Amino acid sequence: MPSAARSSQSASSSNLELLTIYEVSKILGSSLDLEQTLREVLRALSYQLQMHRGRVYLQGDDNTLRLVAAHGLSKEALAQEIDFREGEGISGRILKTGMPVVVPNLADEPLFLNRSGGRDDLDEQVASLVGVPIKAAGAVVGVLTIDRISDEGPDGHFGADVRFLTMVANLIGQTVRLHRTVAEERRFMMRETFRVQKELRPVAIPVNDVVCTSSNMVDVLSQVHRVAPFKSTVLIRGESGTGKELIARAIHNMSPRKDAPFIRVNCAALPESLLESELFGHEKGSFTGAQKDHKGRFELASGGTLFLDEIGDISSNFQAKLLRVLQEQEFERVGGSKTIKTDVRLICATNLNLEEAVGHGKFRADLYFRINVVTIHLPPLRERRGDIALLAKHFVAKFGKDNGLNLEIDGEALEVLNRCTWPGNVRELENCIERAATQCRDGKIRLPDLSCSMNLCNSSVLFQYRTMGAAVGGLAPTTSAAPTNPNITRTPQPGVGPAAMPSAVPAPVGANGAAWPACASGCAAGPTPGCGAAKPMAPTAILPLPTPERGAPSAPAALAPSAPAPVAARNGHGQPAATPPQPTADNPDLPLDEPDSGPLRDRLLWAMERTGWVQAKAARLLGMTTRQVSYALRKYSIEIKKF
Fold first, then answer.
1. Phi and psi of 199, rounded to 5°?
2. pLDDT tens readout for residues 254-270
3. What is the DSSP letter of 53?
């Protein structure tokens, strides 16, 4: 009978273990939350087999065991972070050896650290611990431990418990491996998605009338696509001629307001009184000439987009009036008292340095912060040289289409255009192409058709004003010295010259470090003329004509002044400058004895004598314009000889 009872008890225990394995397998496959699943497994072990205080540790990336699920522990123990290094404590030993561990009596085990707490009753009862490694693909990934209160004391048999917990640990190991595989694949897919999005992000959808392939301009178009769907105020910044209005219209056309009006106002083109009436409208009889009610641009653009160009040029008084409309989206007409609500998406543009204007008190700081929500910086054409040839071909095709012609541009002409700095940016390039297209005769624009080849490009004059330290029409000032021909070394006159200012835009630099004008004529005046000009100009800065010193004797008009002693010239790096080329029969315009310094009158007399009293040639020698030479001749009462 005792043998039959033990057999029946063993069969019942086996059935219970089999049922528990079945329940554990169902729990492990029921959820993707690994920690919640492991807690349910430990709860099932406790209910079915009276295994108390179960714990599951998993190995992290730093090879440290961390408690991820527990049953039978206090809330205080669960709140703290419990971990074991390899070989530390009982769990650490299981991780290191990969073998199960049985501790019949925890009170007698020196490796038991009791970090989870709650085992202060070991003197009153015998608590045993069984721990098995959790393996996946032959590697230990964690540890499963359970405590059992044994009535038989430390002499109980634990073989069946070790065998059963090993099966449970194997099931847990496969689940952990599956979860980690899925997590790794998910991270890989997220990385791949981010990488692909990052690669595809610069490839923006083309915008009408915006021709570009350069990376900085493609980034601008990507920003346009990102900001277009929202109502946020946009501030477009860039030099004059960079296409700020095109970008503003592109934002409107890609926004949900594309079917509503797009109203544009040039704030610099209207006086303050008229600008207020244009933006806010006026009531009948509000001022002389107000014969009827007039809707303002804010009212006309309701539901659409209002583009305020050159917003940095409005007066301080009008800035305060504009601020309320931007903040409250409401206004009153001039001469009216009724408050009008409006729903307008505002896009502003300026070529000024608003931060500097705020610092000098010329622009309100509160208005600056109100319009500076999303800022788009348009690069100047000199910073997107890869687009110059593409833009030139686009403008050639546009001119041909508008005039019913079949035009193309020569490759050498494109190379010359690509060497220019374009202070007027895209607008200047379009005008240059249009001028050249009107000069070509056989349907192909070549070097002689370009304005710079005929010394008719006036951009060099504008650039020279720009080098004097003042902003000209939206062009940033530079610190470059007066551009001079590197083949002719000049000594600057003391006390005469432009003041140095912080450079906002780097000036173009030639091969020997000398600065060059930002136009096609600068290419012709460079060390290697590439514009086809037969006689390249030697441009110089436009400086005020000095007044002759009092008491200084005037040289006779018929006598040329003697040349002063030569002065060793040095370049901008302190090194001796290159030796000037000597005049030849092929180059008669190079001076033989041009005075490097001295009164302007003497230099004028010398140049006029050298050129046979031809003012245009004298202006070329002196690096001045013909108009300047004519003015100087009249100022110094120099009689022009006629032959």
1. -70, -35
2. 999 999 999 999 988 88
3. E
